[in-house]
Amino acid sequence: MKKIITFLFPLCLALLLLVACGEDYEYPSVKLEFLTAHSGTDGTLQSVLTDDGDYLTVLEDGAGVRTSPDTTLRIISNYELLENEGQTGVKLWAVSSVVSPLPQPASMFQEGVKTDPVELTSMWMGRNYLNMLLGVKAQNGGHLFHFVEDSIAKDEITGSTTVYLTLYHDDVDDVPAYTMRAYLSVPLWQYANGIDNQLLTVHFSLHNYDGEIETRTFETQINIDDVQ
Known about the structure:
Shape: globular
Distance between the termini: 27 Å
CATH topology of the largest domain: Immunoglobulin-like
Number of strands: 14
CATH class of the largest domain: Mainly Beta
């Protein structure tokens, strides 16, 4: 059986801008958003796709990101729009990777599905992704996250798809000393079945600190032209 790798998220990153821990820093007029980034053959970030559907060239990368060549990755960044010789692009001031693995069935987690609690701060639909901001009680800051695909169904008449997902969270017995922030983004494009603007209903559940299961439901359409 293939082993599922859970994703470690360092909860308190200084490069996560004004919302992160540490000293405040005054940035110019910037946006803080989830982005889908693409790297070039040298591993530097060449372009980003906003959740509004805008493709933007990376004109400057103040964060100096290096990743694998020709890679698509999910990031959160504070960025500034720039104009250069009539071309609109971005300067990335700070960048952090976002936990965004493909959801997997519960049977793929050899040690079982762990659902340690979190605080749901906000959850919203992005472009081909379900984004979320979570509050996590921690001290050392390293927690494991993934997404569990509980069930999936396709309506043969309408062609629409419904998927039920659960947050995998292992707090690795961390001391619940402080509330820190975690940014996660669920990829959804794999549920399009190769059909552009495929209608998708997502039911996403997590366990909170009150001992309850919270579920949020979203409807969206998948843009397969964005998938690379």
